[in-house]
């Protein structure tokens, strides 16, 4: 149902919303002498606790990804019942497995950081307790690193669960990139010139001598 033109409009709207929302949420932070950079406005604390982290950053993307994974699974079940080639069925099953594993990875990687941010927003740790503050910073950095893996794990998930994707990667890396690099670095000019070019030269020299 979604056309390319509609997709561009939706992308533009979501980008504008993300920029506006980030500016508004960032303006609610303030630097406290004992707590560091935290959300100081009570309204924004409630918003982050009950909507931003659990819904906008956590539950809503999970629901959207799960919905499309179930639609993909339903599509594969419908295709299996139809008279389609076996290769087409295998490819659709691989796509469904890739989507399902992507959703599972998304839930496992994003949920811990969102849960910690909800806790840290409502119960910030004071710098007057150095050990607890250091543990909180370490835990946040660790969970943030795990959360960022969500943006780079697609390639590895597809490598593990799609044989066709593995063959395509092998073809690109070995057949194209490696051969191109090998031809550039190990290029040797071993061309042999044909003898036909020598005969005209000899005849030209003889004609000049006769003249």
From TrEMBL:
<keyword id="KW-1133">Transmembrane helix</keyword>
<dbReference type="InterPro" id="IPR017452">
    <property type="entry name" value="GPCR_Rhodpsn_7TM"/>
</dbReference>
<protein>
    <recommendedName>
        <fullName>G-protein coupled receptors family 1 profile domain-containing protein</fullName>
    </recommendedName>
</protein>
<dbReference type="GO" id="GO:0016020">
    <property type="term" value="C:membrane"/>
</dbReference>
<feature type="transmembrane region" description="Helical">
    <location>
        <begin position="139"/>
        <end position="161"/>
    </location>
</feature>
<feature type="transmembrane region" description="Helical">
    <location>
        <begin position="95"/>
        <end position="119"/>
    </location>
</feature>
<feature type="transmembrane region" description="Helical">
    <location>
        <begin position="51"/>
        <end position="74"/>
    </location>
</feature>
<keyword id="KW-0812">Transmembrane</keyword>
<keyword id="KW-0472">Membrane</keyword>
<feature type="domain" description="G-protein coupled receptors family 1 profile">
    <location>
        <begin position="1"/>
        <end position="158"/>
    </location>
</feature>
<feature type="transmembrane region" description="Helical">
    <location>
        <begin position="12"/>
        <end position="31"/>
    </location>
</feature>
């Amino acid at each position: 149902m979604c056309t390319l033109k509609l997709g561009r409009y939706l992308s533009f709207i979501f980008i504008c919303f993300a920029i506006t929302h980030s500016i508004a949420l960032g303006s609610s932070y303030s630097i406290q002498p004992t707590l560091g950079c935290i959300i100081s406005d009570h309204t924004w604390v409630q918003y982050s606790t009950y909507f931003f982290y659990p819904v906008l950053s956590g539950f809503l993307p999970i629901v959207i990804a799960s919905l499309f994974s179930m639609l993909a699974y339903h599509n594969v079940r419908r295709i299996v019942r139809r008279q389609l080639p076996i290769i087409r069925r295998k490819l659709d099953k691989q796509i469904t497995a890739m989507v399902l594993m992507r959703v599972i990875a998304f839930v496992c990687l994003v949920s811990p950081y969102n849960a910690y941010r909800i806790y840290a927003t409502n119960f910030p740790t004071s710098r007057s307790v150095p050990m607890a503050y250091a543990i909180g910073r370490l835990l946040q950095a660790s969970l943030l690193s795990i959360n960022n893996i969500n943006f780079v794990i697609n390639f590895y998930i597809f490598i593990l669960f799609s044989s066709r994707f593995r063959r395509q990667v092998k073809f690109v890396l070995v057949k194209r990139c490696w051969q191109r690099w090998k031809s550039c670095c190990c290029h040797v000019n071993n061309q042999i010139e044909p003898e036909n070019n020598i005969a005209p030269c000899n005849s030209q020299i003889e004609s000049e001598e006769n003249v």
